[in-house]
């Protein structure tokens, strides 16, 4: 029954207006665990299946870019034991999933200050990115130690340096230049932002890039998020009218 329902939803998706880039704020792992009287870490562990289904769901539809907010610059302020568990989970997941990424022709990338992650994570990420670098079906980007403000500060520093070195004049600073200095310089802006677990905020994610993204917020907690939820989000997106500030007749 579930299967049939999933198929129905998928068939409603129009391939001509598919979002090219979907970004997700994967939220609600802690609440999911709490609901069953378990530790927060239990929620993080159960989030992996949601990541798998979302990545697979996007790839099979033909979405070119999927960006997942996995760890924010503010998440360091959580209890050390939770941060540690998240980092370990990152290492073990990358280790176990890289083969599947390759099988599905998915390239792994990161945005964020990965130099601030534990060495074991950096190593695992570097290996997985190297192994998947020629895959062409979809780019799966993990935002790790990422913050929109961090990214903009980094871009501002680079521009200040270029100006100090006499490479550019103030009037040459443009949207294009700023874009080119962001961690996302090689991808289009997200067409669709999904946030799970009902919170109505951006939480320092892709501040510049979300300027004209359609926002879809669901009460589903991230560990419960399945392909059918992804399909629902895309169908809702396809019913929107994207105006980009213009008046449409
Ligand atoms: C999202 O779930 C995972 C990360 C931010 C790493 P949370 O851990 O934020 O779960 P809630 O929001 O407390 O339920
Ligand atoms: C946003 O979720 C960060 C990630 C999903 C990695 P948070 O749970 O950290 O955000 P707030 O605290 O609810 O804003
Ligand atoms: Mg949260």
From TrEMBL:
GO molecular-function terms, A-Z: ditrans,polycis-polyprenyl diphosphate synthase [(2E,6E)-farnesyl diphosphate specific] activity; magnesium ion binding
Keyword Zinc: no
Cofactor(s) essential for the protein: Mg(2+)
UniProt-annotated binding residues for substrate: 28-32, 40, 44, 72-74, 76, 78, 195, 201-203
The entry's keywords: Magnesium, Metal-binding, Transferase
Enzyme class per UniProt: transferase
Assigned protein family: Belongs to the UPP synthase family.
UniProt-listed PANTHER family: DEHYDRODOLICHYL DIPHOSPHATE SYNTHASE 2, DEHYDRODOLICHYL DIPHOSPHATE SYNTHASE FAMILY MEMBER
Cited HAMAP family: ISPT
This protein's name: Isoprenyl transferase
Species per Swiss-Prot/TrEMBL record: Flexibacter flexilis DSM 6793
Lineage of source species: Bacteria, Pseudomonadati, Bacteroidota, Cytophagia, Cytophagales
